[in-house]
Design a protein that fits this description.
With 468 residues, this protein is mostly helical. It contains 17 helices and no strands.
Length: 468
């Protein structure tokens, strides 16, 4: 019995490292962006693409990779995706042109979709139901730490070794993680009997999401009425509309739209969307503010963001226990209330803002982040049968990353519309405050006690197995 338990926790350690690296890469580039821009002579639009193309690829492939993992084996798909992620990281660090870097970031994002979806399903499968809550909570604590520590680690690496090590660091850690996983991770897959993937749906989703995201990202640069912008957005919307039609007629859909009939699952993806909308934009602009308005560089940027990241790291383990005790609803509502407060505080920033206000604003953001990240994913998992875990995580994280991409795109449109940095930063923060309050209201409506009781109990992981 002890041997089986040891093997489970070794498996957790291996997939935890892999998942941690995927989460780090979502935020680590933000503090490296000024150094990348200086070295590769890239303007803010191209730097935005370095961040946004990663998120666009995540959005395009997340559900597909979850489905492939469920059908063809989560361990097999995880190993393949991890190797591709490592090779893309190596290429990104070797890039001598910003467009090559953008290309490698797209491949990184596509491979990273595997890292997010397979790891959660593998951990859920590895542990008995009595230990599953602790294991899943620990995994998403690790993920939260990765998302939070990324900017600080990026600042340290840029200051000590140069921006290329932001990407190269992944390679040795992937080797270590795979060495741990090979003897300890067992294969698992869905038991629902499906053996095929909907390739037409896959093609439409893969084309449609990045087109919409990139069109929104570059619209104010190319011109909103330009053929390129209209072609990307219009073509992307058409592809996504066709995707919905194809999926509804498919015997083996990539997305089961039946998932969206339950208010509990809808509240989870709403929370994931709003979370990423907030932090992807805020974490892109905060280093710019610290650099341009306060003269910080490299390590100083990372340390300045520490009030946010340290709070995420400190609160994430506590949040898991609170979710078991109180359910996820109050945590999600409290998280978006904290986001709104942080955005309102940051909207008052100027070059002369005192350090105490900055520390408080960033710390409140960290509290909101910790309160939403784990509970949102746990809510999604608890809303579906265990056999659909990969699909549920894939769907949830697709909306997470779509929210991040759209948040960064919309916020940067507002930011660049102002010639003054302070005015642009203020406008973006007002947008984040409004989105946070709207998300809070939506979650409150979707998870009203009478709705929650009718759908599923608010005891997240105990309801996972066999629920619908």
């Amino acid at each position: 019995m002890s041997g089986a338990s040891d093997r489970r926790w070794w498996a957790f350690a291996g997939v935890g490292i892999i998942s941690f690296l995927g989460c780090i890469d979502l935020t680590i580039v933000n503090t490296a962006a000024p150094a990348i821009g200086d070295d590769l002579k890239a303007d803010v639009t191209r730097l935005q693409l370095v961040v946004n193309v990663f998120i666009a690829a995540l959005s395009a492939f997340m559900v597909t990779m979850g489905r492939l993992a469920d059908v063809h084996g989560r361990r097999r798909v995880l190993y393949a995706g991890t190797v591709v992620f490592g090779l893309a990281s190596l290429g990104a660090g070797l890039a001598t042109d910003v467009w090559w870097l953008i290309g490698f970031r797209f491949v990184q994002g596509a491979a990273c979709a595997v890292l997010y979806t397979s790891t959660g399903a593998i951990v859920s499968n590895a542990f008995p139901e009595a230990e599953r809550g602790k294991a899943i909570g620990a995994l998403y604590g690790v993920n939260g730490l990765g998302l939070a520590i990324g900017p600080v680690l990026g600042g340290l690496l840029v200051g000590w070794a140069g921006w290329r090590w932001v990407f190269w660091l992944n390679v040795p850690l992937i080797v270590v993680a795979l060495a741990i996983c090979f003897p300890s991770v067992r294969e698992s897959r869905s038991d629902e009997g499906a053996t095929r993937v909907d390739w037409p749906g896959l093609a439409l989703l893969t084309a449609g999401l990045p087109a919409v995201v990139l069109g929104l990202s570059l619209g104010d640069t190319w011109g909103w009425g330009s053929p390129a912008t209209l072609g990307l957005i219009g073509g992307g919307v058409a592809a996504l509309a066709a995707f919905v039609l194809v999926e509804r007629a498919s015997d083996h859909p990539i997305i089961d739209f039946g998932l969206f009939a339950g208010p509990r699952f809808v509240s989870a993806i709403t929370a994931d969307f709003g979370l990423a909308f907030f932090y992807c934009l805020a974490f892109f602009l905060m280093p710019i503010y610290l650099t341009e308005a306060r003269g910080h560089t490299g390590l100083a940027i990372g340390l300045s963001l520490l009030p946010c990241t340290a709070v995420v790291a400190a609160l994430s383990p506590v949040v898991g226990r609170l979710a078991d005790r109180w359910g996820t609803r109050p945590l999600l509502l409290g998280g978006f209330a904290a986001f709104a407060v942080s955005a309102l505080l940051q909207s008052a920033f100027s070059p002369a803002t005192g350090l105490p206000l900055i520390v408080v604003a960033f710390a409140v953001m960290g509290a909101g982040w910790a309160l939403v990240l784990g509970p949102a994913t746990v809510t999604a998992l608890s809303a579906v049968p265990e056999r659909m875990a990969g699909l549920a995580v894939g769907s949830s994280w697709t909306f997470h990353n779509l929210g991040g991409a759209l948040g960064l795109a919309a916020g940067m449109v507002l930011y660049r519309a102002h010639h003054d940095l302070t005015d642009g930063y203020r406008a973006a923060m007002w947008l984040l405050a409004a989105v946070s309050l709207l998300t809070l209201a939506a979650i409150a409506a979707l998870t009203r006690p009478r709705v929650a009781v009718a759908a599923l109990p608010d005891r997240p992981l105990q309801a996972t197995k066999g629920s619908s």
